[in-house]
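Long-time lurker, first post. I've been practising inverse folding by hand and with some scripts of my own, and I keep getting stuck on stretches where the structure tokens seem ambiguous. Below is the full token string for one chain I'm working on. Before anyone asks, I'm not after the true native sequence, just a reasonable design that respects the backbone. If someone could post their per-position residues I'd love to compare against what I wrote down in my notebook.
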């Protein structure tokens, strides 16, 4: 029997029970900033190891290939755990699972601080990858505990923390690494993680919205197999060779595992991912747009850091240090912080589809500036800031679209899948940019370095993907009534229909 399509009906009792009518008191007022702090901390954890990568082979007595796994392990663990912990949050309590994710992240930081063994370091970085689930879990909590008139702006801020943390984490980590022992960076991250854990335990209320049942263990193992095969092939393809037996085997395993997992999910009584719901255009298209936006956003950080650190002898490089390169990205994080309330206002007045499409166009404009001039520092910073502005708009709209299209009891799982799609987009972007730069190199001072043409092609590729994301966003269906600006404005003022933007459409 076909499942009923979500309509804008009166919220069900579980949704009523899970939503506070008006959080009050100093502890409740800290819920949004504390959850945002956790999101920023997650992004900082992902970027903190970047300044260490050139020196880690010497510091740990290992090879460069082994050191690359300190990044790959975090990526794989985060991709696998994000939808799994999101589903667990829907079943067992979102706050409980959020605290688990923060605890694993903090434990991983402590292990990193205590070891110089590359094997332990890789395992500890995998533990830190659990932090990737913090953002979707926090978005689900905000939907459940905040009044409707505050939810859109809070979700916009929460979603923007990914870019904010990435922009802040790189210069902070570079400064610590430059002026202190490299273990200090992980001690600092452990202290920050412990603070986030304590604050979340104190300020965040547990949501009453649950989707009980038996956890889909076969589905979780199957999804882990699918993601490991895909992301391992994408992240290591450049090093192992795209035509090598391991990479071809991984891609083959990905296809087979995906088919088996899909078959199992359609027959499971309580599936890890509700594929019938996910296949609906109002859910599937935001997920696909998240992949495209994740791809286009990540090229900015990936390429800018390399370009400004290139030697001046290349004719385009600025010869900056890793600290200087990180500081070039700092304005981008500040812009994302201040744009999150603006993006929420646009979504409330014009609809999140418009915000998402606008964000993708702004990203493409930022890359257009980078193509016109990538030699002057101020133009590089301006272009990167515009890309980040577009990312803030797009990232803030994506969870709003998802929350308006799924039942309240499945927001953790659906938000986790949306963040997962961003992660896959970033992984594919990393491989694509590496492939472009490797095929456009020139000798400089006895070294083979990417040419300016290679960087410009990478910008053009990212801009084209952003425009594809705009087209995808405009294709997301919605009723004429839902898209009228006046209806969104009434929700903002808190009229009789206030809040149905986020929850009415999600109730079957």
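-- Answer (accepted) --
I ran through it position by position. Result:
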């Amino acid at each position: 029997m076909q499942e009923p399509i979500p309509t804008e009906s009166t919220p069900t009792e579980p949704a009523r029970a899970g939503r506070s009518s008006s959080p009050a008191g100093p502890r409740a007022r800290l819920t949004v900033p504390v959850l945002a702090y956790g999101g920023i901390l997650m992004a900082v954890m992902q970027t903190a190891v970047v300044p260490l990568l050139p020196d880690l082979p010497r510091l740990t007595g290992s090879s460069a290939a082994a050191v690359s796994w300190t990044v790959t392990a975090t990526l794989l663990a985060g991709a696998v755990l994000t939808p799994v912990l999101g589903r667990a949050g829907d079943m067992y309590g979102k706050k409980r699972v959020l605290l688990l994710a923060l605890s694993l992240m903090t434990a991983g930081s402590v292990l990193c601080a205590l070891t110089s063994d590359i094997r332990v370091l890789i395992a500890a970085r995998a533990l830190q990858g659990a932090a990737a689930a913090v953002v979707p879990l926090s978005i689900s909590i905000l939907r459940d505990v905040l009044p409707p008139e505050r939810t859109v702006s809070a979700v916009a801020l929460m979603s923007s923390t990914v870019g904010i943390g990435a922009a802040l984490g790189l210069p902070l980590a570079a400064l610590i690494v430059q002026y202190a022992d490299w273990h200090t960076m992980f001690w600092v991250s452990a202290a920050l993680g412990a603070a986030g854990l304590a604050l979340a335990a104190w300020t965040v209320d547990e949501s009453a919205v649950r989707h009980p049942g038996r956890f889909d263990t076969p589905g979780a193992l199957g999804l882990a197999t699918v993601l490991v095969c895909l992301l391992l092939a994408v992240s290591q393809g450049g090093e192992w060779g795209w035509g090598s037996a391991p990479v071809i085997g991984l891609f083959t395993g990905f296809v087979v595992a995906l088919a088996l997992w899909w078959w199992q999910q359609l027959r499971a009584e309580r599936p890890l991912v509700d594929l019938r719901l996910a296949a609906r255009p109002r859910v599937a298209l935001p997920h696909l747009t998240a992949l495209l936006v994740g791809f286009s956003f990540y090229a900015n950080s990936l390429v800018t850091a390399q370009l400004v650190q290139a030697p001046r002898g290349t004719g385009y490089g600025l010869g900056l240090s890793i600290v200087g390169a990180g500081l070039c990205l700092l304005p981008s994080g500040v812009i994302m912080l201040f744009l999150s309330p603006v993006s929420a206002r646009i979504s409330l007045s014009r609809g999140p589809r418009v915000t998402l499409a606008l964000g993708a166009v702004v990203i493409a404009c930022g890359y257009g500036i980078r193509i016109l001039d990538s030699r002057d520092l101020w133009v590089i910073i301006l272009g990167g800031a515009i890309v980040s502005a577009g990312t803030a708009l797009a990232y803030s709209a994506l969870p709003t679209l998802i929350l308006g299209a799924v039942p309240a009891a499945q927001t953790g799982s659906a938000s986790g899948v949306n963040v997962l799609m961003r992660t896959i987009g970033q992984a594919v972007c990393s491989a694509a940019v590496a492939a472009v730069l490797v095929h456009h190199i020139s000798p400089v001072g006895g070294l083979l370095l990417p040419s300016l043409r290679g960087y410009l092609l990478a910008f053009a590729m990212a801009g084209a993907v952003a425009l594809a994301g705009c087209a995808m966003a405009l294709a997301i269906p919605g009723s004429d009534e839902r898209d009228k600006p006046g209806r969104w404005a009434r929700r903002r003022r808190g009229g009789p229909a206030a809040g149905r933007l986020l929850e009415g459409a999600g109730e079957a």
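A couple of notes from the structure itself: Strands lie at 441-444, 447-450. Residues 441 and 450 are 4 Å apart (CA to CA). Happy to go over any region you disagree with.
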